[in-house]
Amino acid sequence: MSIPARALLRIAAEEWVPWTKIDVQENGTVGILGPMAHLLDIFADKLNFDYELVRPSDRVWGGPQSDGSWTGMLGMLQRQEVEFAIGPFGVTALRETVCDFSDPVYSENNAILMVRPTLQNDFTGFVKPFTIKTWVWTLVSLVTVVVMMALVVKAEARVFTSQTRHVLSKAAMWGVKTLTQESSEWLPKNDGGRLIVTTWLLASLVFMTSYGGILTAMLTVPRVTIPINSLADLVSQTDLPWRLEAGSMMFQYFKESQDEVRQKVFTEVAGTFPDCWAARKAIANGEFAAICDRTTMKKAMSWDFSTSGQCHLYISSENVYSNAIISMAFKNNSTYLSDANRIIRTVKESGILDKWLAAEITNTTQCLRPPTSDRGNAVAALNVDVMAGPFLVLVGGLTVGLLVFLSELTAWSLCGLDK
User: Fold this and answer.
1) Can you give the C-alpha Rg of the chain in angstroms?
2) Mean pLDDT for the stretch of residues 350-377
3) Of 178, 174, 16, 181, nearest in space to 88 by CA
4) Is 265:242 a contact under the CB 8 Å cutoff?
5) How far apart (Å, rounded) are the C-alpha atoms in residues 197 and 235?
6) Could you tell me what percentage of the chain is helix, strand and coil, using 3-state DSSP and rounding each to the nearest 5?
7) Contact call for residues 107 and 324 (beta carbons, < 8 A)
8) How many CB atoms lie within 10 A of CB 22?
9) In whole angstroms, what is the distance from residue 62 CA to residue 74 CA?
10) Looking at the predicted structure, is the pLDDT value of residue 122 above 50?
11) Mean pLDDT computed over every residue of the chain
12) Does residue 129 have a cis bond before it (omega within 30 degrees)?
């Protein structure tokens, strides 16, 4: 009995870490590593074929062109230059017009990958315990109390025929001292004024106790601002440009979307990049944000923590696209599709695929924690950056005081010369 000859198949492959890692040998032969490489070896063994891997000349998964042809690996399938493409591919209705997809290999979510937000010190933080509206109302309260105090004291002086001098300035100084928890020697002599004193003492106590407590918490617990956590955040900011993966499902998705925010993602994009794995260093350096699948982003985080011992990447909490089906792509009417589906189902149901994927992604637990967890014990020593605001106010006050003194000295000198 003769053994059937093994067929030699041409199979398209391109890099999508961690699923597929291209390995080019010294003689130019293309090989692959990763979960899809393991799956391809099972195909070759069970379906009795040898294979030659071929990379698309443009190094992309593929998209439609104006003349009806397709680029990338999907174009190779459309022209039937290969039996199938290892991918995996995001399945869309448009892509199904040029190839047959296998049973789902995985369900993927896409999000935004960017440089990790860090702990920030705000030199204006000493005014942040209150909102602007609260500060305005506090100032209005102070002015109101001072004016009422002056009016009441003057009125009571007329009633009780007592002498008053510089009431407004004394009331203003008393109001400010009380607000800043300082004692004052001057007080109204009669009950009406003293009732206002009591009211303002209670109010200022609440104001300054609240301010001091919140300020202490804000200064000793540095804040972490996460500027981008959704597509709406991405398109509404201008500090960090973003790019899309060339020839990917998400590129086509944003290009065809009628949603206003998603249209803006495409029209204001700062360019494209080959793939998220190749762009991981640029993203970690804060050069741009990228829209990628979460599996690749976790692999990039794993690489980052393993090589540096730190976390430089952050994944947005909101998905850009949820539950995208990814599959292998076969040329239309391929005789290998049904058997390939049977193998894919077996590998998934046995948990082997998850095991392969888990082996590629390690050391991500620390980096998947929110940036707020980077505060450690949540208490930090106050450095110069934190206290820069109060120091600037002090320097400004001293400068103004010196200028006033010099102007007074100049005026006194001129008066002396005149005499």
Assistant:
1) 35
2) 83
3) 16
4) yes
5) 52
6) 50, 15, 35
7) yes
8) 17
9) 5
10) yes
11) 86
12) no
- Residue 396, pLDDT above cutoff 80: no
> Residue 294: helix, strand or coil by DSSP?
helix
Strands 30-33 and 49-54: unpaired
pLDDT at 384: 67
User: Whole-angstrom Cα distance, residue 45 to residue 341?
Assistant: 15
C-alpha distance from residue 179 to each of 131, 200, 209, 265 (Å): 17, 8, 10, 50
DSSP 301-321: HHHHHHHHSS--EEE-SS-SE
pLDDT digits 0-9 by tens, 378-395: 555 666 666 666 677 677
pTM comes to 0.69
Of 168, 178, 167, 169, nearest to 138 (Cα)?
A: 178
CB 297 within 8 A of CB 276: yes
* Token pair recorded at residue 231: 């597509």
pLDDT score, position 386 = 62
The answer to whether the Cα torsion of 273, 278, 282, 286 is positive or negative is positive
Q: Give me the count of residues in the chain.
A: 419
Q: How far apart, in whole angstroms, are the C-alpha atoms of residue 332 and residue 335? A: 9
